[in-house]
Amino acid sequence: MKKICVIGTGYVGIITAACFADLGNRVVALDIDEEKIEGLKNGKMPIYEPGLKELVDRNVNAERLSFTTSYAEALENTEFAFIAVGTPEGVDGEADLKYVAAAASSIAQNIQNELIIINKSTVPVGTGDWVAKIVNEHKSDGVPFSVVSCPEFLREGAAISDFMNPHRVVLGSMDEEAADKVAQLHLPLRAPIVVTDLRTAEMIKYASNAFLATKISFINEIANICEDLGADVTEVAAGMGYDQRIGPHFLSAGIGYGGSCFPKDVKALAHMAEEKGRHPQMLHAVIDINTDRRQMAVQRVKEMLGKELLTGTTIGLLGLSFKPNTDDMREAPSLDIAKSLEAAGAQVRAYDPIAMEEAAPLLPKVEMFPNPYKMAVGCDLLMVNTEWNEFQQLDLEKIHDTMKQPFLFDGRNIYDPDKMAQLGFKYRGVGRGYDGRVADK
Ligand code: UGA
Fold it and tell me: Which one has a higher pLDDT value, 91 or 196?
């Protein structure tokens, strides 16, 4: 059992804290937001994540996990301090490091014994060295410390299982002994452990996210060409994915990527390259293609309804969150899409299993419905924004019969075009030249 403190109880922080506690360690999670800590003490989770509440409750009850706003308390006899604070997008796509700087200086002011500071937040290459400098400047003499980079690769919605079953653990440090101690902490996860220097570890995180975003923008570009040439991108992706050099993952065409990571990280990487005088053309193409997906979606709705102006039409959005199993609305494509549809004159409605509460203040004119059936009544067109499992099981016949016009734009390709046509829908997916022909019949 090791004593660990985790600074920041946002997405990465609370998952890291709960999972390390579940591995048998004694973990104190710290946040400067008193309301958040009060909530956690009363069993209220700061985010929605499947399985998180049960995990937190179990470890709090076992007295392995506790919460505090006090650095002095969190760092008492602590060997490892994880920094897991937010790194929001600043000007020019640059990551804003004010929370990392604040955490580093607070750690320094409260350091009591030899400490390994591990950075989990996604930070620009070179931040580890900068954190070490801040700690050195603020701590009292004689207390040894090391900085290790351990980027997180968790996906929202699958974060606990991703933490417990990582594809790899990346550790970067100039201090081999510290890296080895952090490696020991991760041994129960039985994953390959890559040990490298600080800057390389930080770069692995950006390069991984940028590569995944590139796969998505690549398949979205192929989707456009498929539409023009009458091919089906879902089958193209499946056919490509069997090649082990390509792999089947992250090849789902649709309305593009959103969330708190890909949009921000690809921009931040481009920014770092530009600062060094480079022209990161591929990263810019990835960003441009993704931005265009949202306008493509609005254009598709207009084409389907045969109108440039959508005045007098009612459009129902199935799903709002940037992906399933989360209520996260950060950079969700649905935000831009709903606003553009409204700007074109449409009345927009929405249903999302989890994210409506988060989305309502961001989309004040969108009317939220308690279920898809009520939402569909009188709609001219339904659009799938998020591939929630429950949308697979909808009684589509019932929905079809209550709509004003049976148009369905499937922005995530969750339905079978032939079945939708049989049900009487005027259906279009993304990159499915074939369904285009069905819809044109
Ligand atoms: C992503 C990475 O997958 C994680 O490994 C990483 O740790 C995390 O960012 C982070 O840096 O914190 P996340 O943003 O939770 O995780 O979500 P993903 O499942 O990767 O999806 C991102 C977006 O891409 C979603 O909007 C999703 O709809 C979209 N996507 C994903 C596609 O459009 N097509 C695909 O084939 C896959």
Answer: 196
- CATH number of the domain that residue 187 is part of: 3.40.50.720
Beta strand 193-196 with 65-68 is unpaired
Residue 432's beta-bridge partner residues? 232
Active site residues: 261
Mutate to test the pocket of ligand 1, among 156, 208, 352 (most ligand atoms within 8 A of CB): 156
- Give pLDDT tens digits for 57-68: 999 999 999 999
Residue 359 lies in a domain: yes
Amino acid 424 reads G
Look at the pTM and tell me if it is higher than 0.85.
yes
Domain span at residue 75? 3-196
Cβ neighbours of residue 166 closer than 8 Å, sequence gap 6 or more = 153, 189, 191
275 and 182 within one domain: no
What is 89-142 written as a DSSP string?
Answer: B-GGGPBP-HHHHHHHHHHHHH--S-EEEEE-S---TTHHHHHHHHHHHHSPTT
